[in-house]
What we know:
The chain is α/β, with parallel strands linked by helices. It contains 13 helices and 15 strands. It is 39% helix and 25% strand.
Amino acid sequence: MQKAGLRSAVAAVAVAALTVGASAQTIKIGVVNTFSGPQASFGEMIDRAFRLYIKLHADQLPPGVKIEIINRDDGGANPDKARQLAQELVVRDKVDILSGITFTPNAMAIAPIATQAKIPTVLVNAGTSVVVTRSPYYVRSSFTIYQHCVPLGTWAAKTLKKTFILVSDYAPGHDCQEAYTSSYTKAGGEIVGVIRAPVATADFAPFLQRVKDAKPDAMMVFLPAGRTATAMMKGFVDLGLKSSGIKLIGTGDIVPEEELPNIGDEAIGTITMFHYSAAGDRPANKAFVAAWRKEYGDKATPNFAAAASWDGMAMIFDAIKKQNGKLNPEKTVEIMKNFKTDQSPRGTISIDPETRDIVQNEYLRETRRVGGELVNVEIETASVAVKDPWQIMQKDKK
């Protein structure tokens, strides 16, 4: 885990080609991210992915070009601090690109700075659909909550006729509730209750008791990945919801790879809809996981934030190479919004040039113990090349 020194230190990453001299071109990437607090795992995963991609692809940069990453810690969902840090990175550190940004409120706060300063910004997590519309310089390599929750609702309605929804009470949670409800009820399912839990809550017992009393077929959950989701998972078992036959379903945030050892066997049988699993049986993913474990240890496993950051850095490299290291903001965004690769750990991905948002597959997954290790097994590809459903809905309204 990253310590306090990382939160304000400049992490210079030497990735120059062989001929770096006095005339070297340095591309500065300012990263506003979460390196402390309950969701500090985001900072670690994203930073590790950036560093590993740079290390393994340094020879692809134009001669004389190097990258410098400047990390800043927002401490969590803290829009005022995130805005301040982004402004410092732009004004004082004179970064060429912004990235990171775990939480939606922080992304919303940074958007005006990216727009005014004309700084291309690669979002590698924040998943609320509306975020990318807030700045023409935003490009998202991660996901949207609608991409998960719409196909999850369609799938669940086939066999689970009554659902109780539990989500965190902030924008991504609201997106998940609305997306799941729309597709689930359209397919014939019934929502029997909704709870919007405070984002910082650690005690889920009162909420879970309400769910248990309602006797639904399923509880659909969205919570920020990390210790919060782990607390909920343990409560789900301890309070007898699992033994009573209630099926736990949700987005992959509730069973992220780095938390599975902490959750333990309570996670077994959880069904999630998500865009990535470290257990995915794809050559590019196997190579990614192998490189990760070689770099960070045999027990280390990349999660969804790591995969999005790996692909986000691939987008940045593509823009650097196509401009020979001399970045123009508008040209950089133009290159990024036309990015496509079949070498992502997630499978084939692209950016929708109209919305600057990710297009990717969605996988139905079940948490199982395989070879003594808890993993999220991809049961099927539920949807292929999914554009953000929310963006499509907004377009249809016009």
